[in-house]
Amino acid sequence: MQRSAQGQVPSLYGETMIIMVMDGQGGGIGATIIKGLRSAISEELEILALGTNSIATSRMMKAGANRGATGENAIVHTSPRVDVIIGPLAILMPNAMMGEVKPAMARAVSSSEARKILVPLIQERVKLVGTTGEPLPHLVDQVVQDIKEMYENV
Question: What pLDDT score does 11 carry?
Fold first, then answer.
C-alpha cells in the first residue's frame, strides 16, 4: 500500500485504513486501545467502535472513535468491511463475555479478511498458554506499535 496524495493510508475498502475495535461488557479494553491509538497515530486514522452493548460502544466513542454501532447486526455487517479488527481474544469465542458475543458475531469476526490483533485477556474458562501475562497497558502498547508499524510501512 502507498499513501495517497493527502498522506492517507489506503484501505481495501475506501480512501483510508479502517480499524474496527470491538469490545463488550463495560468497553474498558476497547476504550484503552482507542485512546492509545489516538495518542500515537494521527487523527486521520478511521476507528470504528463496535460494542456488544451500548455501554461498551459509548465508552469507546468517548475514547475517540470516529463512529460507533452496537449489537449483532452491526458487528456482522461491519466485520467484512474493515482492514483491521482489534479486541480481546474473547471476540472470537461464541458466548464469551457472559454471553454477549453471539455465535454470529464470533463467526463474522473470525471469517473477516481483516487482519486481527487480539489482546489475550479472557475471563472465560480458557487458558491461553505461551502468553506473557502482561498487564493491559503493556498489551495496548504492543497493539499500538503493531498499528503504527502498519501505518508507517505502507
Answer: 64
> How many Å apart are CA 152 and CA 139, to the nearest integer?
20
Report DSSP state, residue 81: G
Q: Which fold has domain 18-148?
A: Rossmann fold (3.40.50)
Write the burial class of residue 8 (CB in 10 Å: 0-12 exposed, 13-18 middle, 19+ buried). middle
Domain-wise residue ranges, the chain: 18-148
- Sheet with 18-23, edge to edge strand ranges: 67-70, 46-51, 18-23, 84-88, 115-119
Measured at the CA of 131, the angle between CA 128 and CA 134, to 5 degrees, comes to: 120
By C-alpha distance, which of 42, 88, 96, 35 is closest to 61? 35
In contact, 2 and 10? CB cutoff 8 Å: yes
Task: Encode pLDDT of 127-154 as tens digits.
Answer: 777 777 788 888 888 898 888 888 776 5
Q: Model pTM?
A: 0.85
pLDDT in tens, 2-14: 344 444 455 655 6
Q: What is the dihedral of CA 53, 128, 103, 71, to 10 degrees?
A: 20
Give me the amino acid identity at 151.
Y
